[in-house]
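Example 492.
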Amino acid sequence: MSDTVRVHRREEIDTVNPEVHGHFAEHLGRCIYGGIWVGDDEEVPTTDGIREDTVELLTELGLNQLRWPGGCFADAYHWEDGVGPREERPSRPNDFWAQGREEEFTESNAFGTEEFMRLCELVDAEPFLAANVGSGAPDEASSWVEYCNSDADTTRARERAENGSEEPHDVAYWGVGNENWGCGGRFDPETYANEFRRFAHYMKLSGAEETVACGHIQEDWNRRFLAELTEPDLMDHLSVHRYFGRFGPECGSPTEFDEEEYYTLFAHSMQVGIDVDNVAAALDAYLSTDDVGIAVDEWGAWYPEATSENGLEQENTVRDAVAAAGVLDDFNHRADLISMANLAQTVNVLQCVVQTDEEDAWPTPTYQVLDLYSPHAGATAVRTAVETEEVETDLRDLPLVSASATVREGETNVTLSNRALDDARTVRVELDGDAGTATGEVLFDGQDPDDYSTRENADAFAASDLDVEEEDGDLLVELPPNSVAGLSVESA
Ligand code: AHR
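Predicted structure in complex with alpha-L-arabinofuranose:
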């Protein structure tokens, strides 16, 4: 069982925008409340109410960008509820999500704009705010931009200073709604195009540098939106969301799946890259992918087990992490198209990277993949071709090995994953020219695809050294079944 990965180091695709390794945190379940914000809770140490253990893990990972406050929650959220003295903030219903595991659909507003900005500062992430289009108004959205970004002597800027932030937050990225074809107001594409124009116009006037328009996995929706959008200069990014594991073919549960379901999850995850290609085709038909970036601002595994009632919690397994590796490879292959991507959702919810209980925080297997892939962020993606065996699934044929590569200052980073359920695979990596010195790391060697991390065993999911042999100027590695590897190669 041998495969070949050809890395064409001179065939550059584009820079991998660091924001492609972005994350998403919504007021949903235990993502914000419990996972990030505990206020005065004495069980865990905090900085201004934000859990230090979570911050430490997220900082080590290098989040790059964090999207907030939703999701569906964004189009029901009124930002003014979440600023000013905490004890005076109103309690509202959370129209979409239970907070935790107790079917408690309320929002205390304890975590608002200033708390989110503090979190971004602590973990060194670029903030990305999603404004309320569905139930809000353009002046509410533009006044949020003004509150965050204005350095003029206005009432909003003074309010920010009174709330502790003299200097503007300089938020560059602004979502103009979220899933406005669904939970964000059930707009048809033409109506959303007109609303987008109105909102983005005033938001830009108030200082929103880059706007993200809501797109769809349905091509027709995107095309109708773009046809109606007569002033495209207002749009900097067009979004698309894709969850795999649910809303499609049967992939089993996180920890129980047969062989067919095992492979179907990977085949389904390949849809993320295909969605990007479809959005790119729609953009090119009306505008240009040179002018508008594609924002995959929600993606990840979502199983039927994760429901609103349990705060969208599910076990996060090795299989999910290996699937994420393939998606990140697909992002590298499309570095010229994708401007940002946000894995859903940072802590405790869906395919999170960190999980918490009342005393501790620990990384998931997906955290380890993001960590292994971090050298790609900001580097230049190069064309990488994979020759491997394929497994037939109902959706599509699935290549058993996924790979991608980037170059930066004489160093080449290659990431590889073996999706085979039982078999190790020997992979020959050809780099055009002599390989040079190479080191390797591997994840999940000896672990099962349904293994997931807990507070007790999380360390076992960390990377270990991988033997990299040199043969005739190529590199040879043996990838264990359902594993992910990273190679770092210094030019000869
Ligand atoms: O991430 C959970 C939900 O999935 C988000 O709120 C929504 O945007 C999407 O449908």
